[in-house]
Amino acid sequence: MTLSVLSVASELYPLIKTGGLADVAGALPRALAAEGVSVRSLLPGYPAVLRQVPGAEAVLDLGWMFGGPARLLAAEAAGLALFVLDAPHLFAREGGPYAGPEGDWPDNPQRFAALAQVAARLGRGALEGFRPAVVHAHDWQAGLVPAYLHYGEGPRPGTLMTVHNLAFQGQCAPELLGELGLPPESYSIHGVEYYGAIGFLKAGLHLADRVTTVSPTYAAEIRTEAGGMGLAGLLRDRGTSLSGILNGIDMAVWNPASDAALEQPFSIDDMAPREASRAALRRHFRLDDDPAAPVLGIISRLSWQKGMDAVVEALPALLGHNMRLVVLGTGDRAIEAGLTRAAEAHPGRVGLHLGYDEALAHRIQAGCDALLVPSRFEPCGLTQLCALRYGALPVVARVGGLADTVIDANEMALATGVATGVQFASAERDFLEAALNRLALLWSDQAGWRSIQRNAMACDVSWARPAAQYAALYRAIASR
Fold first, then answer.
1. CB-based contact 310:432 (threshold 8 Å)
2. CA-CA distance, 125 to 449, in Å (whole number)?
3. Which residue numbers belong to the known binding site for ADP-alpha-D-glucose?
4. Rounded Cα–Cα distance for residues 102 and 94 (Å)
5. Which residue of 52, 145, 257, 456 shows the fewest CB atoms closer than 10 Å?
6. How far does the signal peptide extend, from start to end residue (predicted)?
7. What DSSP assignment string belongs to 247-288?
């Protein structure tokens, strides 16, 4: 029997994307179809989204929501069944989904409360012919979904809250409680109250039937005071209601055998054409044309969390091993400035693209020899999964999903032939430099390198196993 699920997210690839949440929200529904789960995804009607669903049909008049009229649209796009919250006064503005030129949109609490309210209404059967058994809320922007369902009247669907990054929690002043449509009794430690504020993510974590995060190791880390970011006690109290399910990647989007962004297709069975991508990457970043020098890639937000300051500090050691570095990303001004200075000081050895370019991300994965992911914390990470798929050896800090997805090339792993990359202790200069030393030794044995590369490309990084785990969890929630 098909199980009906409503997925609620603030972004969804390929319609709108700022990070990994969009990739998950876009790929998981398709993978769940094989598990007998039918998913409709609800997302805000940003201009970029509405442009891609020109045939959307208005299916529900939502009335007046936070200062203006709103309606629900139904559409099909990118193989996904969609609901779109069309509320121009909340979402029709230039800038990103969460911020404009002056910083975060000041009405973000109202914008995403509206999204959550619509999800709760759909969950209770407001649209004839659609009543989900489970509502799956993603990250703080959907955190109030379990709250609206919990404090509402009548039968409700089961609820699942997935946290993709605990660092982003969504908080607003308690004076907004009534405006957001939350009852007075909700403002307590057992409701939406969080250190004297209204906590969107806290509400979802506390009130959802089940909670997941995007890797088993991260699920353990956030139960600790060091990793819990103020929520460790609550998460420990959830006990076995909290679990970790690894992310996957879309194997059709990330497929070196058919990727149109690449110079030439390649596969685990025919890796020779990968050399064309290596050469193309050197040309793109104007690196010295030396095929014997390994090129390390970074595709990341340039922030402290991602360990990019440690990369800047360890750059002399990297260059000392005759390695090259290419970077794609944007973020903290100080780190951007440090990498800009490095690119200017080392032309032909350091390449930098400030910003984001999806096609270039594919070309870096296909053309670099190793991918650096030195995060200080990482709920799951997707870039290292793409690297495995494309034969770029991940060099990762031993945290969160990075620890769960990369098998370190230690002596035992090399002896048994299972290594897929390099792990190191934490995102500090000394540890990163030690990892670069190990990487240089691995590179010096090209036959051994090819063996690790084949191991990496043979990894199953698809959504098949995670989708089966989500389907089992949905059914357990639905039968609660």
1. yes
2. 56
3. 17
4. 12
5. 257
6. none
7. ----TTTS-TTT-TTSSS--BTTB-TTHHHHHHHHHHHTT--
Closest by alpha carbon to 198, among 240, 144, 150?
144
Distance CA 249, CA 229 (A): 27
Segment holding 80, helix H or strand E:
strand 80-86
274-458: which CATH architecture? 3-Layer(aba) Sandwich (3.40)
Residue 127: CB atoms within 10 A of its CB come to: 16
The DSSP result for 295-335, as a single string, is EEEEES-BSTTTTHHHHHHHHHHHHHTT-EEEEEE-B-HHH
pLDDT tens-place values along the chain, 480 residues long: 899 999 999 999 999 999 899 999 999 999 999 999 999 999 999 999 999 999 999 999 999 999 999 999 999 999 999 999 999 999 999 889 999 988 999 999 999 999 999 999 999 999 999 999 999 999 999 999 999 999 999 899 999 999 999 999 999 999 999 999 999 999 999 999 999 999 999 999 999 999 999 999 999 999 999 999 999 999 999 999 999 999 999 999 999 999 999 999 999 999 999 999 999 999 999 999 999 999 999 999 999 999 999 999 999 999 999 999 999 999 999 999 999 999 999 999 999 999 999 999 999 999 999 999 999 999 999 999 999 999 999 999 999 999 999 999 999 999 999 999 999 999 999 999 999 999 999 999 999 999 999 999 999 999 999 999 999 999 999 998
Contact assessment for residue 195 and residue 174, using Cβ atoms and an 8 Å cutoff: no
Helix pair 429-444, 446-458: axis angle to 10 deg: 110
The rounded distance, in Å, linking the Cα atoms of 57 and 80 is: 15
Residue with tokens 């999903």: 401
Residues 6+ apart with CB under 8 A from 208: 137, 146, 159, 160, 161
What residues does each domain of the chain span?
3-248+464-478, 274-458
What are the beta bridge partners of residue 44?
A: 85
The radius of gyration computed from the CA coordinates of the chain, to the nearest angstrom, equals: 23
Could you give the 3-state DSSP secondary structure of residue 203?
helix
Specify binding-site residues: 17
Return d(Cα 327, Cα 325) in angstroms, integer: 7
Same fold, 3-248+464-478 and 274-458: yes
Is residue 183 a contact partner of residue 159, using CB atoms and an 8 Å limit?
Answer: no
User: Which amino acid, residue 312?
Assistant: V
For tokens 């090259």, what's the residue? 324
Q: Check: pTM over 0.85? Answer yes or no.
A: yes
| 37 three-state secondary structure | strand
